[in-house]
Design brief:
By secondary structure, the chain is α+β, with helices and mostly antiparallel strands. It is built from three helices and three strands; from the N terminus they run ααβαββ. It has a three-stranded mixed beta sheet, covered by helices on one side. Belongs to the complex I NDUFA2 subunit family.
Length: about 60
């Protein structure tokens, strides 16, 4: 997808916060598992920070 290669044009970094076990974070865990490698390959110098913590509400921030 085109947006993957243009992340660094619009963001300084991408932070992903989620819980390792919470059902509410399941979608975020699946997104990371399916898309992290392609996002990082398309943006090798762009910081993508993945933060897992127990009980954290899933969110993306920049």
């Amino acid at each position: 997808m085109t947006w993957r290669s243009q992340l660094s044009k619009y963001l300084k970094e991408l932070r992903v916060h989620f819980c390792q076990t919470s059902p509410a974070s399941k979608g975020v865990r699946e997104f990371i598992a399916q898309n992290y490698r392609s996002l990082k390959a398309a943006n090798p110098h762009f910081p993508i920070l993945i933060r897992e913590a127990s009980g954290v509400i899933a969110r993306f921030s920049n």
